[in-house]
Specification:
Layout: E1 16-17, E2 32-35, E3 38-41, E4 54-55, H1 72-81
Parallel strand pairs: 1-4
Antiparallel strand pairs: 2-3
Amino acid sequence: MGADSYSSLATEARLWAALSEGDWIGLVPNVSVSLFDTTVGFGADPTNPSFGASSLDPGDVGHGGYMNAGGRLIDAFALIAGGRGEELVDV
């Protein structure tokens, strides 16, 4: 995300994050380095509770399965987009 925490985003919007146990991206280190005029790598993990995002349970999907029809996140995104995100329970 390029942010160290929710508070560093300077927004009052609710932030949601999800990571499936079956997603290989969870094995990638959460580090970033400055290289010339850009940043390379990943920063803080938005799914870590210390980041400050609200958790969503994506179910057991791989990296490309978050947006699959009939998946848990599709239903969650529909609630969020419809202004009903408060109905979701943090995991």
